[in-house]
Amino acid sequence: MSEQSHAAPRPLLSPFNVVAALLLLLGGCAAAYRFAAGLGPSTNLDHLNPWGLWIGFDVMTGVALAAGGFTISSAVYLFGMREYQPLVRPAILTGFLGYFLVVVGLLVDLGQPWRLPYPFLVQSGPTSALFEIALCVALYLTTLFVEISPAAFEWLGLKRWRRLVHSMTMALTIFGLILSTMHQSTLGAMYLITPSRLHPLWYSAHIPVHFFVSAVAAGISMVVLESALSHRALSDRVEVSGERLDEMTVGLAKAGAVVLGVYLAIKVVALSLDDEWALLLTPYGHWYLFELLGFVLLPMLGYIVGHRERRPTLIRISAGVTVAGVVLNRLNVSMFAYNWRLPAADRYWPHPYEIAVSVALVTFGVVMFRWIASRMPILSEHPDWRGEH
Amino acid sequence: MHTLQEFLNHTKGMTYVISALLLLASIGFWLYLTGREGGE
Question: What tens digit of pLDDT does each residue of A105-125 get?
Fold first, then answer.
């Protein structure tokens, strides 16, 4: 194993570990109760609201926030932006863990989780949007696993396997990009059949495009955030200097500004195409404007000023706001603006057990990232493979 | 009294105007975003 594993050990009872263990314990107990008692007692899901937090947050948001993997690997390997190479492995690892947790979240959410492979083995239903998502997520999770495996092979000293997988990098990147384009947009396409349930401000014939473009913005912003956080939390493992990271952050801000600009433009065009201007004056309209102006326009301006003035801190704040905005958008589409005509008593609000499981899944992702990045060459290059990425 | 055709004409007309304005704005957006890159 590499010298990475010989870095100074961290104390087991650190504040991070204690808080993470508590959250994981709470979530684990909630998940155990869900499997013991069933979905009825452990969730607020019912026939009016069959999809709740585990779909709206764990799946819809999780997939969007894991988009950094295909965004950065496409930029580096397909568009030749080699200066962002140090960000590829952390982004792919984040993507892999994100998709892995999506599947774990699905297992908790499905009434009969052992039927997860049914779309592939028993009843494919190839005309269903859900089938496409299931197929793409399964294939992309496998692709991400193969893409991140060279880090494990370097760590384990398996040079032949590392060479073999590395030779497939370009094919894997193209395959990952195709799969991501398909399922990121299809997550939005699922809502095309809900014109009477989803509020008209969020419903659009172009919602698949909205989902895809916002996922790219989320992916770029997640890379900005995750690189800054790992630079701070795992400083002894990071090879890239603070100045170089700032340079890359300023470059990513340009991409972030353009993508958010495109997203804002297509949202305005969608408003105009459906002639929904009058709805902006309603309470839901104010909420919509809060989402669009506060979490799209504002971070876009932050990215623009951050790129022009070369201010990495402002860019990181904008990235955080963008990520929060994508979370809010997915929750709006799947929960807050969904079933909006129902009386308040019938509306869905997540059960504490649902929240506990979702928090535990996010915590598990952070813990796993930290564990892997502390041991494998994720944030730095392995001495035997320097410059060979 | 308005017909559906008039409604569609109005909506599409508005969208064309907005799209044209957005395309024009994108030029200013790009010039402002990259305005200081040459001096680096």
Answer: 999 999 999 998 888 888 878
